Structures are given as C-alpha cells and as structure tokens.
C-alpha cells in the first residue's frame, strides 16, 4: 500500500494535501482496498461548511457503505464531479485523480491532529493485526 509522505492522514482513512490555505482531501489507498470496487460516491456540495470529524459524504462499494468524515473544518471550494460518473477512479488513483474535495482551511491548528505517513502506516498495520 502507498502512503505518500507529503500527505497528512486521519484515523478515518482520509488523506489531506495542504496547498497554501486550501486542503485537498480523499480516501487512502488502505480505505479503497478495504472497501473493494467503489460503485458510488456521495460528494459534499460547493459552499458546504465542514466541521472536523463530522460526516460530509459517503462511498459505496460492493463490501460496504462507508461514511466520509471531515479531517478538517472549512468551506468546500471544489468537488471532484468526475467521481459521480466514474467512482472507480478512487480505486485506480486514490491520491491524484480520486480526490474528493478542496476545502478552505478554517483552522490550520487542526492539522496537528492528523497523522504523518509513518504514523498512519503503523496504525493500519496494528488494525490489520487485530483482525
């Protein structure tokens, strides 16, 4: 599994790429692999206000329906509309083409609650060992 070093990760398997005062978010390689083939994505709407740890959409796959939890608070500036017609992009390219939304960072301090790639990889390994 791939966990790019430049990203931050939430315990709910969402990644964050900070770009100035904006953050791009998506699901991790681990999440998409665990879910299996993704068949539908419920995206937030541009203008929605997200609160950290609140649900902001969902991903439907053969194995499960998974809620998406906001890794950060802020306003949704863009959504990846391509996912509506081609949700499988999240399986093929979770870190680039499979991004979900771009969010205006409201509180950069929230970034401190997210994990580094190494910490996230360790937490995933522990989860797999428990199963």
From TrEMBL:
Cofactor binding note of this UniProt entry: Binds 1 lipoyl cofactor covalently.
Keywords: Lipoyl
The keyword Nucleus belongs to this UniProt entry's keyword annotation: no
Gene3D superfamilies xrefs: 2.40.50.100
Cofactor(s) listed: (R)-lipoate
Annotated Lipoyl-binding domain residues: 22-104
InterPro entries on file: Biotin_lipoyl, GCV_H, GCV_H/Fam206, GCV_H_sub, Single_hybrid_motif
Residue positions where N6-lipoyllysine is found in the record: 63
Subunit structure: The glycine cleavage system is composed of four proteins: P, T, L and H.
NCBIfam families: gcvH (TIGR00527), PRK01202.1 (NF002270)
Function: The glycine cleavage system catalyzes the degradation of glycine. The H protein shuttles the methylamine group of glycine from the P protein to the T protein.
Family as reported in the entry's similarity comment: Belongs to the GcvH family.
Record protein name field: Glycine cleavage system H protein
């Amino acid at each position: 599994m791939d966990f790019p070093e430049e990203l931050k990760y939430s315990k709910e398997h969402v990644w964050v790429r900070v770009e100035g005062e904006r953050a791009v978010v998506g699901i991790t390689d681990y999440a998409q692999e665990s879910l299996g083939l993704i068949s539908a994505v419920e995206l937030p709407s541009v203008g929605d206000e997200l609160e950290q740890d609140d649900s902001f959409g969902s991903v439907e796959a053969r194995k499960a329906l998974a809620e998406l939890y906001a890794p950060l608070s802020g306003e949704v500036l863009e959504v990846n509309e391509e996912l509506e017609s081609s949700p499988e992009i999240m399986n093929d390219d979770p870190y680039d083409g499979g991004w979900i939304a771009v969010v205006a960072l409201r509180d950069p301090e929230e970034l401190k609650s997210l994990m580094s790639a190494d910490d996230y990889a360790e937490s995933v390994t522990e989860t797999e060992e428990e199963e």
